[in-house]
Predict the structure.
Amino acid sequence: MRVLLVVGGGLFGSLAAAHARRQGFETRVFDPGLDGAASHAAAGLFKEAWAGKRFQEHYRQAVPLLDRLYGLKEVRLRQEDGSEETFWFVSPTRVLEANPIRERVTAVGDGWLEAGGVRHEGFVYIAAGIWCAEFVPGLNVTGKAGAAFLFDGEREGRMRPIARGKQALAFVRDAGRTYFSDGTAAMEYTPEHDRQTLHRAADMGLMEPKRRLWGYRPYVPGGPVFRKVGERTWLGTGGRKMGTILGAAFALRLVEEEIR
Ligand SMILES: Cc1cc2nc3c(=O)[nH]c(=O)nc-3n(C[C@H](O)[C@H](O)[C@H](O)COP(=O)(O)OP(=O)(O)OC[C@H]3O[C@@H](n4cnc5c(N)ncnc54)[C@H](O)[C@@H]3O)c2cc1C
């Protein structure tokens, strides 16, 4: 059987693994659960307007795949003036690999990797978010941190603009809890950012968060990167605020154009 080895079980790695599995690959996803991983904090929302002209093609390709793999849901968020905005939604909780191999990959070569002192052979996809540069010298990946908070109970979906292209969102991402995020993305994330975010949540009536989720959204200068780095090795990162769409578009590229 053809084997796909995936370094990182975030949105990028999990989407590639899910798609490859459906195409008959044996997949092994490695992820030790590093502090600062982004995907578990993502809202999982997307819409065509966010993709803009630049990522239009990625969007067009990604949406049918996400629908096939998980089924798209619609989320309606009410604005202050009573109008509603609709988003597509796939919860990261559904996407993220449930049982990755909890080992850190310590070395990657062309068509092999090493984890826990064991060498594995197959096609390799490096999807290690802000840690990708450890495997590809010269790759410049920076992280912009952001946090989301979970509150008890299921509240009505709401949104409030904060600045151009930035909004506070509250909705039920997973059963029983209300998810809140205000889109803050900072290289130097301080406790003041959290205070401000919690203040915005309180403005929507959300107090006493039960959980804080946070992580570094990966950014690459010049835009997201999907690259062949060896005969049997590829890399995908730079998901910024659109990890669901870009991760799915790159999963398609990997599985349907590169390793088939
Ligand atoms: C608050 C917040 C809200 C967001 N909302 C949205 C949203 O609504 N829609 C959207 O599309 N995007 C959203 N994003 C952005 C999205 O989360 C990111 O673009 C996406 O998660 C990046 O995925 P990734 O798989 O590249 O990175 P990560 O999720 O960081 O995954 C990389 C994984 O690699 C693992 N890893 C690293 N090194 C190794 C190694 N050596 N061996 C094995 N494993 C390794 C790490 O443990 C990690 O789990 C949001 C982000 C944040 C922080």
